[in-house]
Structures
1.
Amino acid sequence: ENVIQGDAVFSRARDEKLGKAIANDTQDKARVVGFVETTTSAGNLVRCIVEGVTPITGLESGKKYFLSANSAGSITKNPPINSGHFVTRVGQAATTASLIVKTEPPVELS
């Protein structure tokens, strides 16, 4: 699938390719392995930032960020709250335009 710089991604078990992660589907899709470094289209190699700092705009400095349950590949400062969704912490905003990547395993809400 097409991915853009800053998308949170997971590794698909069936083919080991990357896809946009989301917190309202399976545990595999909620397990963030990193963030897309450069926008690319489906079928091309994807470079992924798995630790360190990645540029993402629109952040609130100092806030913790989580995988979104509303938009694949997106992050939010408000973790999901619905049963069956997954809370996956992905890092903390160093500035309004950079995220310190620190992914954690997804936790399913009951």
2.
Amino acid sequence: PSCHVEHAKSLFISNEQLMFVAIVDSSCKFHGVVSRESVMQCPENDNNSVETIMDTNIVQIDADKSVKSAVGKLMIREEKEFYRPFVILKKERYYGIATVRDLLIAIGKDL
């Protein structure tokens, strides 16, 4: 969480396909997500912490639960939030970040 906006910006600049970055601490505790859009809108040489722009209202999915359970949690979001990412936790520690598109690809592989 003590990461600076400029560092996050460098991650997005170096990887054009990166849309979100999860913010975790050294013990893998999840704190929030910053989006490419929010980071790129910040002024140049922004030395503020990413905490100032990170989104902490992110759906959290337990890695040990079923895909059906994950879908159920995601479907209760408002329609305008449908394409926001969600995080996957395992034993309350950050495991990964994904989007609904990623989930649909995983489901499609099982068909």
